[in-house]
Amino acid sequence: MNENILILGATSAIAQAVARRYAEHGANLHLVARNAERTSEVTNDLTARGANKVTTHTANAADDSSQTEILQAAFEALPRVDLVLLAWGNLPDEAECEADTGALQDQFKVNGLSPVLLLNRLAPMLAEQPGDSHIAVISSVAGDRGRKSNYAYGAAKAALTTFADGLGGRYLPKGVKVTVVKPGFVATPMTAGLDLPGPLVATPEKVAQRLIKATEKGKPTVHTPAFWRGIMLIIKAIPTTVMRRLPI
Amino acid sequence: MSKKLARSWGRYPQLPQRLLMPDWPDEASAHLVNSRGNRKTTLAYGNGRSYGDSCLAASGRAIGTRGLDRLIEADWQTGRIRAQAGLMLNELIEWALPRGWFPPVTPGTKFVTLGGAVANDVHGKNHHHAGTFGRHVAALDLSRSDGSRKSLTQEATPELFAATVGGLGLTGLVEWVELQLKPVRSSLIETRTYRFASLDEFFELSAEHDAAHEYTVAWVDCLAPEDALGRGLFMTGDHAEDGPLQLARPGKRRIPFDPPFSLVNPTSIKLFNAAIYHRPRHFGRRERTGYEPFFYPLDGILEWNRIYGRQGFQQFQCVIPESEAREAMKEILRLIKADGMGSFLAVLKRYGDIASPGLLSFPMPGLSLALDFPHQPGATTPLLRQLDGVVARAGGRLYPAKDAHMSPELFRESYPAWRTVEAHRDPAILSHFWRRVTS
Questions:
Q1: pTM of the entire structure?
Q2: Is the CB of residue A190 less than 8 Å from the CB of residue A12?
Q3: ipTM, 2 decimals?
Q4: How confident is the model at residue B1 (pLDDT cuts 50, 70, 90)?
Q5: Beta-strand pair B149-152/B137-143
Q6: Nearest to B229 by CA among B140, B348, B147, B315
Q7: 8 Å CB contact of B95 and A187
Q8: CB contact (8 A) between residue A41 and residue B24
Q9: C-alpha A153 chain-centroid distance
Q10: What is the distance between the alpha carbons of residues B359 and B121, in angstroms, rounded to a whole number?
């Protein structure tokens, strides 16, 4: 299992679940998040669970001007960088995005543009390290298809997925393996206000399990839980004229 | 924060709770402060393993603590840990046991939160050696609706500590608990089983074996024929001195739906009890078993409470002081036998004289009986009242964590310190139980 983990958006639910698994294996972790107090709570938890060393950096990964500093600090804190997890994002109110261009731009920046910019900066740094490394990008099934219910969020995630897929191809010969993780509905603070269909909802722990398994193996894409792959194949196959008339 | 509906384990009374699920302590305290601001009351809700209404907020709106499940500090040399109150014992065991540490006191299920263990001052099969859970709590952190946060210890804040341990969550929101774990060399338990044909024989076995073993407990057949009243099986247990430190695998079996009627009925109980009592076994011989079947026999079947059907069930747990125990317990067993509805989960345990730290702590030196009754409107409560009468006359008491029926008079008489707890109660916190027994 990878030993030196960089997590951006470390206080998010999926990130915490992933971090705990690595901590239990004695990994070194570098956590980046905006809230110092919460990051400190997470640090104590990981340390008690067996992490070898946990370092932190309070910063906003979605902020273009902070990204270079964030990455430099991370590469200094860890002996080397084995795995980078991009785990920040938000779920915007679609109606608000339609009404307010500012809101639309903001969510596109948080969910789409900023992870793309970070990947662009990160990949060459990883390529420079001797040996292989992994990137896990948390995208979403929402990016697989434009649907009337969540196309603003979906577009941002679609941009991220496409960019990450291509970047993965570009950097594979340089030893950088990119895994795009596509969760469906996950029970986290991000989805807390929604009415989610019970049987379809996954826990952050389940998502973390599949994420880690796929990333360790260097798989390019993973849907989590697994049944989303089947669902999205069907959804993607629906002709757009039909799709536009469906209530989903 | 997410919302969901929650209930107590017995699913009686039917008071589904709307739960706010904070993910961070500051969110949890904010909820409590907001409640006060809105002139509403609330209550912390861990995993809902209390049987009755002590875990149900009077207002129907509770603050779920399962998102507060982080470890804060762990010293694996001394076994002293500090963790958020939403962490469950099974999670604690998951990383403590491989490192050679175990909860100092564990109740019959591991699916309780640290907060719940403190709030009910739970006890286990080793009460006669280790006392209650609260005895092993070095400190705890309490958030109140006035925005304050205090660390409590027995030395520095004796009265508030005693009101909070066993205090049913009424004094505030417990944010973290500092607990002293006990060292174990193995995950195996050495156990012996003895059969007893009467309550008198049980007392003999208890006198002979309690002092020599860490854990002892008995199962009693409540529906045995008249001449065999109080027959059952007596078990002793000790952590094995050698062997692996291995975690048990999680139970996969689950009761997936509510049967239309209770599967627990006089016929099924009689058959079950007879089979258990007569099952061939080597009485008195030392056997080794994993910790899971010894401590948590029912945890292997997830949601076993559903076998009682949608009406739910009530658990009755009483303790009778040592001097009255023999006669009073015989009377209780006679009444249960006459009624015919007693469940197969009748547990008999002799408590020791180690004092409990909580003002409302349940155990006292004497004998405890715990069993379930499928809830039958009109039938269950009259029997329980009769049993209450025996308990009251003998100077005993019932266990709030299990209770859904005790009268305010019985509660106030058997827990005279309730007034002190009421004085310390946070004005924004009220459980259905407390409102029921103190009004």
A1: 0.90
A2: yes
A3: 0.86
A4: very low
A5: antiparallel
A6: B348
A7: no
A8: yes
A9: 14
A10: 10
